[in-house]
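User: Please fill in residues for this 277-position structure.
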């Protein structure tokens, strides 16, 4: 199977890793030269780490690297790929433009890795929405098992079934959800994360202790504030703003979150958020 991934940020790199280490070809599109080089280096590091941790043999790692290719534009991708997965920033018009460009290459199926944007809204720019679904991956993709398969109004049963099968094929556990703002995971996870930020804002407890309340008290593998740092606080803010338009005040971003993003404290990717990285 050959899968195109458009966007080589954190999520695109993770998806490419999952595809290549599962025995399929991953064709990664990233127009920014610097980011493309970073993605290539990062994938090499993660694959090598898999060898050192006993997750991959050296032969498997070498084979995975050989299945990765990097491209500067979607136009460089061959026509008729099995899948093209869009993984660019959470901006409706940007995603629509990228998806339209991808659809012109006639892939068998087309997906968007979005955590909150309506699949039905994204499909409005497509000529054949039946083959389009959401595939929401989780960070870090190489260790997180869940993939939300999101069914838009125009998504066909065949496309949904194909997405479930490809998710399983790369070692993930898919769930199927109806297209609603925030789907299942972001709607629940963002709400918890926002409340945790309000608790910091109100001086209820330190970020570390709030996270411990959830990891030790409720068995969460990671606290909501550390998770927010990993996802990116700018991403958290964008999703909260989107969800607040639909669900109202309970998703209104706390002032502290807005201030931190304005100051460039975005979490792990900037070196500082609720934690120092």
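Assistant: Residues filled in for all 277 positions:
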């Amino acid at each position: 199977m050959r899968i195109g991934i458009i966007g080589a940020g954190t999520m695109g790199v993770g998806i490419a890793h999952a595809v290549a280490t599962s025995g399929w070809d991953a064709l990664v599109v990233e127009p920014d030269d610097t980011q493309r080089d970073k993605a290539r280096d990062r994938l090499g590091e993660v694959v090598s780490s898999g060898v050192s941790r006993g997750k991959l043999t050296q032969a498997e790692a070498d084979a995975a690297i050989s299945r990765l290719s990097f491209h500067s534009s979607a136009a460089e991708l061959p026509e008729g790929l099995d899948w093209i997965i869009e993984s660019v920033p959470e901006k409706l018009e940007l995603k629509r433009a990228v998806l339209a460009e991808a659809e012109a290459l006639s892939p068998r199926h087309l997906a968007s890795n979005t955590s909150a944007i309506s699949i039905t809204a994204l499909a409005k720019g497509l000529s054949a929405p039946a083959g389009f679904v959401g595939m929401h991956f989780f960070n870090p993709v190489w260790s997180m098992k869940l993939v939300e398969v999101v069914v838009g109004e125009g998504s066909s049963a065949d496309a949904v079934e194909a997405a479930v099968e490809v998710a399983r094929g790369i070692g993930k556990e898919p769930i199927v959800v109806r297209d609603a703002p925030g789907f299942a995971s972001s709607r629940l996870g963002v709400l918890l994360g926002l409340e945790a930020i309000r608790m910091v804002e109100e001086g209820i407890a330190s970020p570390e202790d709030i996270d411990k309340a959830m990891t030790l008290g409720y068995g969460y593998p990671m606290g909501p504030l550390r998770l927010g740092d990993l996802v990116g606080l700018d991403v958290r803010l964008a999703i909260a703003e989107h969800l607040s338009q639909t669900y109202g005040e309970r998703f209104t971003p706390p002032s502290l979150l807005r201030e931190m993003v304005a100051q460039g404290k975005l979490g792990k990717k900037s070196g500082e958020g609720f934690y120092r990285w």
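For context: The chain has two domains: 2-178, 185-269.
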